[in-house]
């Protein structure tokens, strides 16, 4: 059964998505943005107090990469904290009164299932390609942002395979379609990965700085500082290309170039001791500190609507 301080498998997450939505009808609504390659539903939760009119929104996804289990855990934690502190935490209350937060708890569902059943270190989707015995593409190399030009591979067997074409992966297409359709209301795009303790922003597909570089950097540095205030966890912030590595086809760069100014990639704990195999004992502290940074960015976005 579901436990916020443990890693939950897809069936448990799916049951939890249904039950937390029905338990919080005034704060959560659920839609499906499409199905995965293997036919699983991609549940999207909208967290916010309904106001009768369309509200500005933040979009956040977890689990683009299958093996980054702390990411999936964070989206569940975020939803729990949001609904359980609405009405008592002034920041969350004000945020959810004025804005909606769209949360995609598991982006790469098929890959996540495979990381539980077959290969704990699986990263990609599970799409099949004729002419290759290798499976899947890297969803974070499959967006339309300098697609397959840098830090991505043309080889279907690579872990950073960019896919046969832009948005060839149905999961990427579903997310991109949703964001395109809601482009006018989406003010921030947050994507949760692990590991390395980084807060990244555009660009990664090129070395040139984003037009909003100084604002993106100062928000990232302030968010990293509040994150570290809880347990002393050290984060580095900066543009992806120079802070982690150049890599094209990422969701953050794509969202930014679409016009979503506050586009951030979180790389959660740790710095490599456990890496993707972060122990369950670190779920709570990791999620609590990350909440502070996400709430900081959300409050900043809200203040600057
Ligand atoms: O390489 C990635 O996709 C991300 N790192 S991870 O270890 N989680 O795979 C970093 C993504 C940074 N942003 C872009 N490359 N656009
Ligand atoms: Zn990742
Ligand atoms: Zn808490």
Automatic annotation (TrEMBL):
It is an enzyme of class 3 (hydrolase). GO terms for cellular component: extracellular space. The active site is at 267 (proton donor/acceptor). Residues 6-301 form the Peptidase M14 domain. Its main location: other. Signal peptide: none annotated. GO terms for molecular function: metallocarboxypeptidase activity; zinc ion binding. Its cofactor is Zn(2+). It catalyses: Preferential release of a C-terminal lysine or arginine amino acid. Its EC number is 3.4.17.2. The keyword Coiled coil does not apply. Keywords: Carboxypeptidase, Disulfide bond, Hydrolase, Metal-binding, Metalloprotease, Protease, Signal, Zinc. GO terms for biological process: proteolysis. It is found in: Zymogen granule lumen. Belongs to the peptidase M14 family. This is Carboxypeptidase B. It comes from Pygocentrus nattereri (Red-bellied piranha).
């Amino acid at each position: 059964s579901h436990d916020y301080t443990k890693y939950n498998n897809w069936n448990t997450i799916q049951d939890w998505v249904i039950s937390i939505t029905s338990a919080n009808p005034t704060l959560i609504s659920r839609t499906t943005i499409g199905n995965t390659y293997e036919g699983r539903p991609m549940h999207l939760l909208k967290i916010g107090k309904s106001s009768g009119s369309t509200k500005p929104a933040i979009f956040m996804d977890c689990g683009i990469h299958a093996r980054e289990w702390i990411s999936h855990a964070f989206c569940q934690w975020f939803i729990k904290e949001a609904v359980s502190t609405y009405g008592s935490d002034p920041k969350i209350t004000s945020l959810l009164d004025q804005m909606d937060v769209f949360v995609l708890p598991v982006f790469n569902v098929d890959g996540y299932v495979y990381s539980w059943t077959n290969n704990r270190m699986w990263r990609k989707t599970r799409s099949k390609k004729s002419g290759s015995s290798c499976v899947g593409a890297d969803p974070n190399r499959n967006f339309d942002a300098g697609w397959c030009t840098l830090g991505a591979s043309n080889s279907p067997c690579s872990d950073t395979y960019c896919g046969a074409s832009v948005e060839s992966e149905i999961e990427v297409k579903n997310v991109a379609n949703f964001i395109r359709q809601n482009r006018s209301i989406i003010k921030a795009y947050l994507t949760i990965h692990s590991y390395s303790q980084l807060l990244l922003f555009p660009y990664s597909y090129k070395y040139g700085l984003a037009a909003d570089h100084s604002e993106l950097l100062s928000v990232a540095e302030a968010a990293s500082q509040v994150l570290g205030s809880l347990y002393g966890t050290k984060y580095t912030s900066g543009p992806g290309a120079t802070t982690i590595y150049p890599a094209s086809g990422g969701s953050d760069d794509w969202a930014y170039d679409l016009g979503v100014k506050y586009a951030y990639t979180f790389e959660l704990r740790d710095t490599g001791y456990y890496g993707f195999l972060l122990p369950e004992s670190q779920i709570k502290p990791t999620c609590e500190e990350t909440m502070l940074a996400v709430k900081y960015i959300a409050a900043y976005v809200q203040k600057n609507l």
